[in-house]
């Protein structure tokens, strides 16, 4: 019978989740600090989701028009040819004024009307400039499509227990001068009995590459110098261990810096398993096939299905 890949736990989200910082399966909530600062508006508008961004822009547009429509409506006669007491005429006039599209049937009729219209035109120019800048910044912000394997594995590699995980470039481009860093985070108790969170930088087989194009199998040998030496699955869980990985480099298309990160909790690290080989040995013409559908598949050590990835996948390219 062909062995089946073991069921894998859901990969945790990375970064902020509703005001909390996600690290592995742990969530950390900040308290005792200011939750809002006016200087953070620009940063916040760049990080909100696209639906929420357009919802906020639409709300700002609607509120601005309603406020100035009320200002026109409060003083009857400030708009020529507007129907007396008919609020929609004030709203449509406000929209025309905010957009600076010029006037047709209706126009400011009094000094008060001209003052309100001038104020709205100025505010409209500021809002259009701000929203245009935010749209450009959101669209031009460099992003990467680097995928990480759902789990990490610990398996013998060249006779040494090795921590492995996969990264892949989903775009048909190159990431130049790519570098990877991996850190282990766990709780430790000091001699004084204080629980302390420690960060350990893991030594990797290869931390830099001139070109990251397809896949990268990230390797960390577990020897006497490794913080994982002698650890079991139970040890990792009891210590609240989290593996954090980050890849950065220069996108050759955008010519700008990009990065990606992922974390793995203890239950996302499988002992005695290896990744399926995703690079086909068979040639289709002069082309070898890289099967991303098996990117996350792992198998128990000793099974013939999904042998250890070849040397071509141990390095980026």
Short description:
The chain is an alpha+beta fold.
Folded structure, characterized:
This is ATP-sensitive inward rectifier potassium channel 10. One of its GO terms (molecular function) is inward rectifier potassium channel activity. It is found in: Membrane. Its main location: membrane. It is a multi-pass membrane protein. The protein has about 325 residues and is an alpha+beta fold. It has 2 domains: about 40-140, Helix Hairpins, CATH 1.10.287; about 145-315, Sandwich (Immunoglobulin-like), CATH 2.60.40.1400. About 25% of the residues lie in helices and about 35% in strands. It is built from 5 helices and 19 strands. The protein has helices at about 40-45, 50-75, 85-100, 110-140, 235-240; strands spanning about 15, 20-25, 25-30, 80, 105-110, 145-150, 150-155, 160-170, 175-190, 195-200, 210, 215-220, 240-250, 255-265, 270, 275, 280-285, 285-290, 300. Strands 6, 7, 8, 12 and 15 form a 5-stranded mixed sheet that branches. Strand 9 and strand 10 form a beta hairpin. The radius of gyration is 29 Å and the shape is elongated. It starts with 14 loop residues before the first strand and ends in a 17-residue tail after the last strand. Mean pLDDT is about 85; it is low at about 10-15 and about 305-315.
């Amino acid at each position: 019978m062909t062995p089946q890949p073991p069921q894998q736990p859901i990969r945790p989200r990375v970064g902020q989740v509703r005001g909390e910082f996600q690290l592995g399966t742990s969530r950390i909530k900040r308290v005792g600090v200011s939750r809002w600062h006016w200087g953070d508006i620009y940063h916040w508008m760049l990080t909100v989701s696209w639906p929420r961004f357009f919802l906020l822009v639409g709300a700002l547009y609607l509120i601005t028009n309603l406020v100035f429509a009320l200002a026109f409506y409060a003083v009857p006669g400030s708009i020529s040819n507007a129907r007396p007491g008919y609020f929609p005429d004030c709203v449509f006039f406000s929209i025309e004024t905010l957009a600076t599209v010029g006037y047709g049937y209706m126009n400011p009729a009094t000094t008060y009307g001209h003052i309100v219209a001038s104020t709205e035109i100025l505010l409209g120019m500021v809002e259009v400039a701000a929203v245009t800048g935010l749209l450009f910044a959101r669209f031009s912000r460099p992003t990467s499509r680097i995928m990480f394997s759902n789990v990490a594995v610990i398996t013998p590699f060249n006779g040494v227990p090795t921590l492995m995980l996969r990264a892949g470039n989903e775009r048909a481009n190159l990431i130049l001068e790519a570098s990877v860093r991996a850190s282990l985070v766990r709780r430790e108790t000091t001699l004084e009995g204080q629980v302390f969170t420690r960060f350990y930088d893991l030594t990797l087989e290869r931390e830099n590459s001139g070109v990251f194009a397809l896949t990268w199998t990230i390797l960390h040998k577990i020897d006497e110098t490794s913080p994982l030496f002698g650890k079991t699955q139970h040890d990792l869980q009891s210590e609240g261990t989290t593996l954090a990985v980050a890849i950065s480099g220069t996108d050759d298309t955008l010519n700008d810096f990009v990065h990606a990160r992922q974390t793995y909790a203890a239950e996302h690290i499988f002992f005695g398993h290896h990744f399926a080989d995703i690079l086909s040995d068979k040639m289709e013409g002069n082309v070898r096939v890289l099967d991303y559908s098996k990117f996350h598949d792992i198998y128990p050590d000793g099974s013939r299905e999904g042998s250890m990835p070849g040397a071509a996948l141990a390095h980026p390219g």
